[in-house]
Amino acid sequence: MRTEAAKRVELVFSLFDANGNGVIDSDDFDLMTGRVLEAAVASDAGAKEAIRKAFRHWWTTLATELDANGDGVVTLDEFRPFVLDPERFGPTVSQFAEALSALGDPDGDGLIERPLFLSLMTAIGFEEANIHALFDAFGPDAEDRITVATWATGIEDYYAPDLAGIPGDRLVGAPAV
Question: What predicted TM-score, i.e. pTM, was given to this entire model?
């Protein structure tokens, strides 16, 4: 796994551990889902249900694939070596990428404005400066918007263990100059 991917794994674990108790469990996904839905006030019921299902699927996949001892929680040691495995998590990541990026486009124009992007990513737990750096790396248009497809691809790239120098690397801090 590339160094950049390892840093992304550590950050994802800390975000998935939404209640901060040191492990990932189903309560974390309920908490994160609630926060994201609060930020998505303009989205329709279908988009909200899609993100609920995507978060629920994330937890089910993590619990099934990574909870080695069956105790209902995923530790960092269980999480670290496997979460970026495209064979195990590719469909889960794709479902999540599609649902989250669609949630960012409540008017259905195929574009995501920075304020809603910022709200959704903040609800997930990313740091504001890093969110702005990511949005900028996606190459917004003159009206400060990115496409839904750009964000969805960016999410999928974030979970790829062999990629580095991707826009998502900005979420773990400023890129080296």
Answer: 0.92
**SS3 call for 108:** coil
For residue 12, which of 66, 72, 87, 68 has the smallest C-alpha distance? 66
Strands (E), the chain: 111-113, 145-147
Residue 105 DSSP one-character state = -
Q: What is the CA radius of gyration of the chain?
A: 15
Beta-bridge partner residues of 112? 146
Contacts of 31-36 with C-beta under 8 Å, sequence gap 24+, read: 32/123, 32/124, 32/125, 35/123, 35/124, 36/100, 36/103, 36/120, 36/123, 36/124
Share of the chain above pLDDT 90, in %: 75
Residues 16/172, Cβ–Cβ less than 8 Å: no
